[in-house]
Amino acid sequence: AGNEIIEDTETGLLAAVADSNDLAEKIIYLLDSPEERKRLVHNAYNRYSNYYNSERMVQDTANWYKTVLSTE
What we know:
Mean pLDDT: 92
Helix content: over 70%
Shape: elongated
Distance between the termini: 32 Å
Low-confidence stretches: none
Largest sheet: none
C-alpha cells in the first residue's frame, strides 16, 4: 500500500482517500514545482536503495525466524 511506503512530504505526497480534489491539487502542485519533484524523487530513491534491498530483507527475515524459534 502506498501509505506504507510513501512518507508524506518526504518521499511523495499522499492524497486523502476518495478525495479527487486533493489528488488533483497535489498533481498540479508537483507539475508546477520542479524542485519539489526533484527533492521527493531524491528522497524516495535514497529510501528505496537504503531500505528496500535484498540484504536488509534477508537479514530481517533471518532475525524473524530466530525470534520465532527462540520462543519455542
